[in-house]
Amino acid sequence: MSFARREQNLALIGAVVTGAVLATGLLLLVLSRVNPAYTARLRGAATDLVAPFWATVRTPFDALGNGIDRVGDYVGTVPRLRRLTLDNAALRRAVQDRDAVAAENRALRRLVAVASPHVDIITIARFAGSSSGSYVRTAMIAAGNRNGVFAGQAVRADVGLVGRTVEAGASAARILLLTDPTSRVPVVVVRTGQAALAVGAAGPLLEIRDRAGAEIPLRRGDRLVTSGAGGLFAPQIPVAEVVDVGDAPRARPFADPGALDFVAVYRAYLPVPEAPVVVSTVPVPREARKK
Amino acid sequence: MTSPATSIFRLRSPDDQVWAWRAALQRMVPAAVTLALIVATTVPIFVSVPIMPDLGLLAVIVWASFQPRLMPPWLAFGVGAASDLVTGTPLGVGATLLPLVVVFVRLVDARFTSHRYAYDWLFTSAVIVGAAVVEWRLLAFAGVVGPLAPLLIRAATTILAYPAVVALAARVERRLAAA
After folding, report:
1. Each residue of A80-91: pLDDT tens digit?
2. Does the interface predicted TM-score (ipTM) exceed 0.90?
3. Which of B43, B89, B91 sits opposite A130 (nearest CB)?
4. Measured between alpha carbons, how far is A186 from A161 in angstroms, rounded to an integer?
5. Chain B (63-102) residues lying within 8 Å, Cβ to Cβ, of chain A
């Protein structure tokens, strides 16, 4: 076989392989479009590989940061103490009022027999990775199936809602952050009681869409909390604060993942029932069935 | 180039066999470095603007341009699929984009052979911006619809990261050539 022929054959094989590779890529893309869940296990495994790496790498930096914070605590202690003493007095009064309201609320709920599901905390985990590449805004945490974390659970910090878990491996999970464009959180405007959706926009702010009663204007500083609709997030978790009241109102999330080290994972407020809901047990006549 | 998988391999001397294994492993080094760069971009720092450069794309372009044999399209496919899994992008976006980039770079390099630094940087910039637009469409096809602006911001930071990645790739290649 001559070298020229060999070269030609190699070039042909190369072109065929390239075509096959591109076709496979497009096939994966189509599968992603049709059924995004089909790679769940593969994704879980990838998360498992990456998260421990960052959990380890960030440890010395966290220690350093904590040390600096500890030194910083000594600076300006006296003014801070005075301020906190004042705050404490004000908060004590607020707590007393709140206790009365809470007791009244409990009594009223008992009166009308409101069922409020118990909200379980599953685990508290450390951030171990982020993805702010294209639009995708996800974070990884160092807790997975082994800790009881599965896809479809709520993630929050003390200041507010962080997002939801979308993939889980054995020891790590991926969180869809509020700012991801595919994130949609049913919220309520606290001041007006309007229901709306807080939609991620791949930027720092959330868009407020589908607000009930859009003719009532929003105000800057209006607080948005979860409504509990959809059953994933429990009601009354702080989500965001309105900062832009134009035609497309926008809000800034309370929880900034960059400022958080640890987050808590909660069981879904009202989990989706395992078995499909049976609407009717009356058998469908043969003539009415679709061929 | 006899790979350890062929039958002729067993007829070689032990020294030759070791050498062949080393050569086979060395061919995997660029892919390994690219994967390491992709993992490095998942560092847990949260910024609301996507300023993290796409180091994986950059590494693939650099190797496809300087050492095309070390970054064939099928390897770019593997790197892209791994990148999709690691960064949480719909699987298939990177796995389609990176082989396309390699094919494009090879086609252009077959016609223009200038490898002056400024030319390379400019050419890479053009490829990166083009890749951002293609990625935008691929993401939209996979169901993640959004504006183009964040991708262009990332394209800009990726272009700025070019010198660092070229320096890294050059170091790795020098080490490979010396070994």
Report:
1. 899 999 999 999
2. no
3. B43
4. 12
5. 72-74, 76-77, 80-82, 85-93, 95-97, 99-100
